[in-house]
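HUMAN: Ready with one sample?

ASSISTANT:
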Amino acid sequence: MKKTVLVGITSGIAAYKVLTLIKLLMKEQININVIMTKNATQVVSPKEIEKISGNKVFTELFEDNLDYKKILVSRTVDHINLADGADLMVIVPATANSIAKLACGIADDFLTTTALAVTKPILICPSMNVNMWNNPVTQGNISTLHKRGYFIIGPAVGQLACGYEGIGRLFDISLIKDEIINVLHHTTSLKGKKIIVTAGATIEKIDDVRYITNRSTGKMGVAIAEECYLRGAEVLLLHGKNSKHPRFVIKEKIFTSGEDLSKLIREHIKNYDYIYHVAAVGDFAIENKVRGKITSRKKINLILIPQVKIVNQIKKLAPRIVLIAFKAEYDLSDKKLIQIADKKLKESHADFIVTNDISKDNAGFEVDTNEVCIISRNHRIKKISNAPKRTIAKEIIDFITDMDIS
């Protein structure tokens, strides 16, 4: 069945880019309805949008020929019809003013009135001056919308229309299109499932100023948490304090050290069906850590002591949970990676091991792409070639869901 996207256009200069977005969405066989604020019509002509979309553009809540008697007979109102008919609403660009209205529940024009009536997902694509974006009021409004379940896409860093350089630029149109498609076509295959995802790096103190850690940003774990969330799962994301944060309203708890993470897992694991243990847990802690600040005027010898492997404790705590463990290795062949994964499966009693080679520039830590190999406990193997981490997350979850071992 053909999907319908309701596009709301506000008066940012970037409004002209929506013409490209509509064309891209229509190539995906998506029906487009458009609402524009009055000021947005000064940036882009409604007639130009109507020509591309093939549908009427709505701008006025009360048109000149409004007849309340006809409405009472027909029981149809345009903004409610548009809200009811949308599979998704995207507001692009979303100005600071429109974001403030949505956060406060103000409905004083066609766009904001319709947004209040939409019961399907709403995507917000901010675009504004860097100082407007960084203003605490705007950040507070974004936080409010985030907590209410709105999807926030961007903004990006770059050259702004006002001449400034910084954050505030409308996110790339092709990426906005991809996000719209992703939300429109996500499944509910994980509805009713409770899933823990760990992500990011642990931190082990040397003294009260310094610590040791690793290069993990949490991007892979967060991508998995987001994909599980989009598929209807109840997700608990346990992530490092310096980790990337999820874009969606996912329950989060933050850890610092390996001990902190272990405690959180012990506290929650018995209530969950799956755990994706993606976090890069430090192998060592500092034996001779110091309170206060170590002087920098003399040499020190740090004594590193091996930590208990959290992944090996999970099945002891919750034997029935489906454990998907992650194992990062360095500069190994696929054959060797699989051998190590097999060994790790036996040690941890995991149901799946996802392994990758972090020696590659475009895979692993601090990048947006990855390539992995998944090995199941019954030795089914799937190699996933280099792709964005969000794509990798989808393929990992597809593979594990298809196995249906829970």
